[in-house]
Automatic annotation (TrEMBL):
GO molecular function, one term: peptidase activity
GO biological process: proteolysis
Gene3D superfamilies in alphabetical order: Acid Proteases
InterPro entries: Peptidase_asp_AF0612 (IPR022274), Peptidase_aspartic_dom_sf (IPR021109)
Entry protein name: Aspartyl protease
Keywords: Hydrolase, Protease
Length: 123
């Protein structure tokens, strides 16, 4: 099980260890975004500091219906105690955890400031 918290803006936050497969991982605080279908988004500055390898370009649709092109990178994350290789979208927004990373997990949120966010594998 993984745990996080609800911040003062009523956003569900968890920390995830992210890095290049052959390098040390860095802890990143990320918002859970159920409208984001990808795995993880990170600002370019974090992607560069981690030395993540570029993978491909992808077209994404934003909440307002507009389409943008995302630069996609490969990263290794520790998720539920397991090392996973995932795609990371470069975005200048706050880091986001998307539904592809949450797939197969139950998310419980105590929707009050300081509330607990719990993510458990569905088995």
């Amino acid at each position: 099980m993984m745990q996080g918290f609800v911040n003062q803006n009523c956003e569900a936050i968890i920390q995830v260890a992210v890095g290049h497969a052959s390098k040390r991982k860095q802890m990143v605080k990320a918002l859970i975004d159920t409208g984001f279908t990808g795995f993880l988004s990170l600002p370019q500055s974090i992607i560069a500091s981690l030395g993540l390898p570029w993978h491909f370009r992808d077209v994404g649709t934003l909440g307002d219906g507009s389409e943008v092109i995302f630069e996609m990178y490969k990263a290794s994350v520790i998720w539920d105690g397991q090392d996973r290789v995932i795609d990371v979208a470069a975005s200048e927004a706050d880091p986001l955890i998307g539904m592809s990373l949450l797939y197969g997990f139950k998310v419980e949120i105590e929707a009050v400031e300081g509330g607990i966010v719990a993510i458990k594998a569905l088995k």
